[in-house]
Amino acid sequence: MAIRVSDLLVPRCVIVSSDLSSRKRALEMLSELVAAAREPLSQRLVFDQLCARERLGSTGLGHGVALPHARVPGLGEACGAFVRASEGIDFDAPDGARVDLIFGLVVPEEYTDEHIEILAMLARLLSAATLRESLRHAHGAEEIFALLAHEESDPAPP
């Protein structure tokens, strides 16, 4: 299975927000974006599943990045949303850094290996310091989407 960012994300699910004051608000925003793009998916169901996963342990990766994720019953395919926060928020990341780059991922409940493969791909992508800096300095959601889509098709050398 070779999933790409453009298989998970559509441009309208990428936003830059100054309205994030907490991890809970970030999860609400991600669930709103995903549900709106995948109607009739319930925003409340997505939010509840993301919160349940977050209670198991922080999805903060470090370097200002978080990757909240969950398996959602009734979902037909993996999908995501990306939020760049104007101010960093506390995500209990292992390095203690505040998070400003948040990629939310939801997958069908039956995805097991696929879930792990997609998470690994996203973590690898967002581990690149040059991409993180480009995402932080992008001029809006369209540029952020373009950066993510370009990076997947032209990966940086190790």
Describe the structure.
This protein is α/β, with parallel strands linked by helices and 158 residues long. The chain has a single domain, classed as Mannitol-specific EII, Chain A. Helix content is 44%, strand content 22%. The chain has six helices and six strands; from the N terminus they run αβααβββββααα. Strand 2 (60-62) and strand 3 (65-66) form a beta hairpin. Helix 2 packs across helix 3 (43-56). The radius of gyration is 14 Å and the shape is globular. The two termini are 21 Å apart. Mean pLDDT is 91; it is low at 153-158.
Question: What is the fold's blueprint, element by element?
Answer:
Elements: H1 5-8, E1 14-17, H2 23-37, H3 43-56, E2 60-62, E3 65-66, E4 69-72, E5 79-89, E6 99-108, H4 113-126, H5 129-137, H6 141-153
Parallel strand pairs: 1-5, 3-6, 4-6
Antiparallel strand pairs: 2-3, 5-6
Which features does this protein show?
158 residues, alpha/beta, Mannitol-specific EII, Chain A, 6-stranded mixed β-sheet, 6 helices, 6 strands, 44% helix, globular, disordered C terminus
> What can be said about the biggest beta sheet?
6 strands, mixed
The CATH superfamily name is Mannitol-specific EII, Chain A
Rg, nearest Å: 14 Å
> What is the fold named in CATH at topology level?
Mannitol-specific EII, Chain A
Mind telling me which CATH architecture this is?
A: 3-Layer(aba) Sandwich
* Helical coverage, percent range: 40-55%
SSE-based structural type: alpha/beta
Q: Give the count of structural domains.
A: 1
Regions with pLDDT < 50 over 5+ consecutive residues?
153-158
Average pLDDT number: 91
- Annotation field: number of helices: 6
Determine and state the CATH class.
Answer: Alpha Beta
Distance between the termini: 21 Å
Strand coverage percent? 15-25%
The coarse overall form would be globular
Order of helices and strands: HEHHEEEEEHHH
Overall number of strands: 6
